[in-house]
Amino acid sequence: MELSPRYDPHEHEAAVYTRWLEAGSFTPAAEAPKGAEPFTIMIPPPNVTGVLHMGHALNGAIQDIVIRHKRMQGFDALWLPGTDHAGIATQAVVEKKLYAEEGKTRQDLGRDAFLGKVWEWKELHGNQILEQYRRLGASCDWSRTKFTMDEDLSRAVRVSFLALWEKGLIYRGARLVHWDCVLQTAISDDEIEYETRKGKLWHLKYPVKDQPERFLVVATTRPETMLGDTGVAVHPDDERYGDLVGKSVVLPFLGREIPIVADESVDPAFGTGAVKVTPGHDPADYERGARHNLPIISILEKDGTLNAEGGPFAGMSREKARTEVVKQLEELGLLDKVESITHNVSLSDRSKSVIEPLVSEQWFVRMKELAEPAIAAVGNGSLTFRPERWKKVYLDWLENVQDWCISRQLWWGHRIPIWYDEDGVPAGSADELQLGDAHPKTGKPIVRQDADVLDTWASSWLWPFATLGWPDDTADLRRFYPTQFISTAREIIYLWIARMVMAGYEFVDSLPEAERCPFTTCYVHATVLDGKGKRMSKSAGNGIDPIAMIEEFGADAVRYSLMMLTREGQDVKLAPARFEEGRRFTNKIWNAARFVMMNLEGERTDGSSAAAVEVEDRWILSRLARTRSEVHTALTDYHFNDAATALYRFVWNDFCDWYVELAKGRLAGEDDSAKAARGTLARVLNDMLALLHPFTPFQTEVLWAELGRVLGDGERGMLVRGPWPTGEGLAVDEAAEARIGVLQEVVRAVRSVRALTMVGERKALDTVIVAPRAEDRDVIESSVERLRGLAHLETVEVHAAAERPPSSAAAVAGGIEVFVRLGEDVDTAKLSETLARRADKARKGLEALSKKLANQGFLANAEPEMVEAEKVKQEELEQELALLERNLEGLS
RNA sequence: GGGCCAUUGGCUCAGUUGGUUAGAGCGCCACGUUGACAUCGUGGAGGUCAGUGGUUCGAAUCCACUAUGGCCCA
Known about the structure:
Blueprint: H1 9-22, E1 38-42, H2 54-73, E2 76-80, E3 82-83, H3 87-102, H4 106-109, H5 111-125, H6 128-136, E4 146-147, H7 151-166, E5 170-180, E6 185-187, E7 192-207, E8 215-220, E9 231-234, E10 248-250, E11 257-262, E12 274-277, H8 283-291, H9 318-331, E13 335-348, E14 356-365, H10 368-379, E15 384-386, H11 390-399, E16 404-405, E17 407-408, E18 418-421, E19 426-428, E20 446-449, E21 453-454, H12 457-460, H13 463-466, H14 475-480, E22 483-488, H15 492-507, E23 519-524, E24 528-529, H16 546-553, H17 555-565, E25 572-573, H18 580-598, H19 615-636, H20 640-664, H21 672-692, H22 697-710, H23 734-756, E26 765-770, H24 774-781, H25 784-791, E27 793-799, E28 808-813, E29 816-821, H26 829-854, H27 856-861, H28 864-891
Parallel strand pairs: 1-2, 3-4, 9-11, 15-23, 22-23, 24-25, 26-27
Antiparallel strand pairs: 5-6, 5-14, 7-8, 7-13, 9-12, 10-11, 14-16, 17-21, 18-19, 18-20, 26-29, 28-29
Helix pairs in contact: 1-22, 10-11, 10-15, 11-15, 16-17, 17-18, 17-20, 18-20, 18-21, 18-22, 19-20, 19-21, 19-23, 20-21, 21-22, 26-28
The structure holds one RNA strand.
């Protein structure tokens, strides 16, 4: 295959992905290879309604890098994909569509027909986001794709529900819950968001019973709820109201007498210091009411309109009732005043409507007991967070966890597995029962199933093991559970991570307690912000579509850029232009590989070992040894940015800028040096592609195949299956690194002179190099040809000591003077400036160093090696400064 | 209201346990194109590390406070 001069991702991505799929590359072997340890990642299942956003792309890239690294290393690697049925979100999407297209509501269709519509929609659109993950290169085992409402996962939900119910950890009761009046369902604490809004604080006058002309003024942001008041509370120490405690006020409109109670929870400084108590519609009042035995009155229907308790306002919407109540109180002279305030309003995450606290019958999970092992898990090291600070967030939530309202008044979801006979006796069953079946306990016919469905998290908390076959003790469960790594966004720590840990400990009883934690590492990835530092969101319209970025820059470039940009979960500001870095890099890799292979055609070298006959061969192999080790360590520790940076430097700076340039002159021949250069190029490219593969899988797979062909090794498999470079045959070579270091210094010095004196690139220059150290002279003398090539020199004279030749410019590098012969008319002003600047800098550095070395405190306290190192540095700096000053004089 | 994070050259970010003459990429300036790559090469300019105080022989790095921006939770 002819490689094009530019890397074109469109040409390869789809084809490469198809090859992986056809080879079953992502599916673990039917049986775990002998000695191979498992490594499992469970994808955080995206909503079936979802489309890929940048957060998914980042998270997907991270998981893919981890699993590819492990797979190449020979682990029994599984990355299991799937989607979440997302109860409210999905139902809302389909309801909206149904209404828009047919003008019907779900009630018009009825439960079964509506669910049919949702399934239809799911089959049609539910795989979109998984398709998008493929575009990113995600190496999930698609043969194990799961959906939270699959029959086996649904059964797992029923089994888990019944287990908790039988243990008394699930109960049913009337409680104040967060009610979404638009979607008409209860929602959990975690589905609420808060918005700071400007509002009003109405001061209402309640007439005190039997004390004409005396009023108790209460302040409220929700005046319509006064219809549900069953008391008024003041602080016990509040002198303004002391004499009123124990008396009553008469509720306007309704004439209900309600008591005045003293309660510590009242803030005397807020409003008037007297608060109306509405246990049916406010969580704080619910508790106050309970303390003082106040009745609970619910004034709202499920749709947010006022019921009969609303008296003259019955039938109005809550908004209308508010206006009317205020207006009529004013007419009655019972409105004291109105203040403007800003306060936090609770909104439903899904419908964005104002949450109404409402008392209703719901199912709850007792969380305290379940939380205990999850709390212990981080203490005993079973679970680690990366970065570690998220541990605190996790623990805070668990330690203050409230009972979990798991019932939802929806149709789309797992229906609660409780059936009733005609007497209302409940019975649970893991298998679905039919109406008319005999009730398991009473034997009477079943007349109905509980109408509610479960919160989506009540299925996704089972994800790490239900996807592997739980509650059955399957081979997959034994083989792949517990998992090793999970990657998620921070706001999911409580919603999902904490619950999965609880569920793991509670349900996976085929394992000893110590082995039940569903994952060992929870990686909390960065939040992707827009170019201005704001969170990307659909509503703000500031999102960047990853698929559009993949189209424009290529999947590899997108992945690489994301890794270069995000350091250890530090938030990242992202703009489309940031992907150019990745594109440039993938192009660079492409061309480096292209160059190597152009020079390898027909060469018979297996690329696995390289005969290093020249110092640059030893040097690049030494750099490769270091880079391999850095990348491997970084990936093992999940430091993706470090690995990406190390690879970038190696590929671009070491390999392309220096080694390839040094090798160019040797490749023409057929001698040992040429052969060694080819062998080294092949070896380095080979390992480089493998090390890059987790980051840029598409491109490296293409190049790997091409390299195999060029080397005549058609038998080797795809890179996706490894091998991961072990570093075999590679060693750090300090001597070679030092020698090339000297060479680099000299080359840079000449180039700098050339640029600063404007002599141009064309002219080959004559140089005199003065190197007092014998080892430096040795390097330079043996590298004259290299210097001639890299710095475009004509002659190179090397001396231990010499005067500056006439008409020459000078550069100083690491104790070495490089004199470049120039014509008389050459302008050395810029060069002098640069030398002067460097001399200044050296002088400042030296000053600081001398001060430090004269400091008794430093000499007494610092480690001896440190003092010694500073002395060496001082000597070097002194020498450099002397050279700079000497040459500066000569130039001016 | 509680918690967390950030503040380093024009922009985006590195800087491991305190000791560097404070780094990188982009952008900018200058020069360069008969072949790996102009999605390129070479050289250069540019920062008293948000502020104040403290700890220390020594602080971009540790502590406290302040300011600004952001995120999560209530």
